[in-house]
Design a protein that fits this description.
10 strands; globular; 287 residues; disordered N terminus; 9-stranded mixed beta barrel; Hypothetical Protein Pfu-838710-001
């Protein structure tokens, strides 16, 4: 290898190690970096936007042309008691949407890379060194853009069917473990040596069930989602409610402009809550 090529490879690997805790078992790919879309997320103050029934107030629904009907969802995460998957950047989630048939579920395997100082390119280069590059067809690349931070994520979503379930019911602990282990994608299966990931999922702790309600409306010509999440309080008694508004854009410039516009709208209405995305962290801490 030429010295210049070697230095470039080392630089990419260094960024990967810094940003993702690279395990050393991945292969550097020659393909270019992935092209992500952008999901903007703002939090709303639940004390202001929710009624006593923990539903969005009419003023919020009207502001975004949202119907009074919602779509319910239940989710759970699988990891070891010590959160070994999460420590490596991985999250494994099983979700049930109200629109699914009784026996249908969605299993998502997501790898996250922190974006330091807004340097999206550095995170994309780190991901590319781990094989999440322009040639990767099984994962959707996305920049999650919150209040004060950005995260690059790669999601592999798989549909599954299990007999014997009704309504919004999530799989039992045993079925959840089997499902997550059976559908595990290659990148996670080979992230560490041996059967590291499979062993974690085989005996995984189930973090959940967590319930949410989704309202769908419009903002500045785009589809806008507002989700109300019901999460156990840290005390273990009662629930904390998180209200998250989000929309997706294909390019950075449009996402940035509409992000500012929505923020200004929320501030003007007195609904804005200046905090970053804590939903997954709170679930993994409290269940």
């Amino acid at each position: 290898m030429k010295r210049s090529s070697l230095l470039l490879a080392c630089a990419v690997l260094g960024a990967s190690t810094l940003l993702s805790g690279w395990s050393g078992g991945q292969t550097v790919h020659a393909a270019g970096v992935a092209t992500p879309d952008y999901e903007v997320k703002w939090y709303l103050d639940p004390a202001v936007v929710l009624g006593s029934d923990h539903k969005l107030k009419t003023a919020v629904l009207n502001a975004f042309d949202m119907p009074s009907t919602v779509e319910k969802m239940n989710v759970e995460y699988l990891d070891s008691n010590d959160l070994n998957l999460n420590a490596e950047g991985w999250d494994v989630r099983i979700r049930k949407m109200e629109s699914y048939s009784d026996e249908d579920f969605e299993v998502t395997y997501k790898m996250r890379y922190p974006i330091a100082g807004g340097n999206i390119q550095a995170a994309l280069s780190a991901a590319s060194a781990d094989g999440f590059d322009a040639d990767e067809d099984d994962y959707e690349a996305q920049v999650d853009w919150g209040y004060a931070s950005q995260t690059l994520s790669f999601s592999n979503k798989k549909d599954a069917e299990l007999d014997g379930y009704d309504g919004m019911e999530l799989p039992s602990k045993g079925d959840s473990r089997d499902l997550a282990e059976d559908l595990i994608p290659g990148k996670l299966a080979h992230w560490q040596s041996g059967d590291w990931a499979e062993d974690i999922l085989h005996d995984a702790h189930i973090y959940g069930t967590v319930s949410a309600k989704r309202s769908i409306g419009k903002w500045d010509g785009e589809k806008l989602y507002i989700e109300v999440w019901e999460i156990n309080k840290a005390s273990g008694s009662g629930y904390e409610y998180l209200v998250e508004a989000s929309f997706k854009e294909d390019d950075f410039a449009t996402a940035s402009a509409k992000r500012d516009s929505l923020k200004n709208k929320l501030i003007a209405e007195g609904w804005f809550l200046p905090q970053d995305g804590l939903k997954t962290t709170k679930i993994l801490e409290r269940y």
